[in-house]
Amino acid sequence: MASDEDYASFLDKANEDPSAGTAKSQDKGKVELKAVDTDVPAPLTKATKDAFYVSDADEPFEPVALKFSGKTLPTEVTFAKLVHHPNPEDTEVSIMDIGEWDPRGEYKALVDATRNASKGSDVRVYRIAGEGARVEYWVVGIQGGRLVGVKALAVES
To answer: What is the pLDDT of residue 157?
Structure first.
């Protein structure tokens, strides 16, 4: 029969990280874009709770609140710079109308929350192509010196 110390040692060894001491590969294709650098409006926090974008990978919506001094929605390149894309000049960004992005009205509550947070300003969808089949959709409007809305990752195969 093993002593308590031997058993504790066995458990410690069993709970060690199996990849400790090995080289870890970097996920080179993954780009983490900035979505928040100012206070998130309450309607967006409430709307994104338990809301998912349905695609090959059902991903949660996240609130967006970025400082923005423009009076109109940004151009594709300006938007890529605003979200800190590492290659804003060469990334594939397109601007879509709400009806084009959500033809069946599945995300009406999120669009309404964005309109509410942006005090009724024009709301557009920015589609940023990622690695492979990954795409990010950003539904945003302008409110008081910031860009507010929601975003979600989609996997489209």
So the answer is: 82
Supply 29's token pair.
């294709």
CA dihedral 94, 96, 100, 103 (to 10 degrees): 110
pLDDT digits (tens, 9 = 90+) for 70-120: 999 999 999 999 999 998 899 999 999 999 999 999 999 999 999 999 998
Average pLDDT estimate for 123-131:
94
CA angle 97, 98, 104 (to 5 degrees): 130
Global pTM value: 0.79
Cα(22)–Cα(54) distance, rounded to whole angstroms?
Answer: 36
Residue 93, both tokens: 């960004």
Alpha-helix runs per DSSP H in the chain:
4-14, 42-48, 76-82, 98-101, 108-117
The Cα 115–Cα 98 span in angstroms is 11
Token couple for 156: 């489209």
CATH number of the domain within which 124 lies: 3.40.1460.10
Residue 6 forms part of a structural domain = no
Is the residue at 21 inside a domain? no
Cα separation, 6 vs 11, whole angstroms:
9
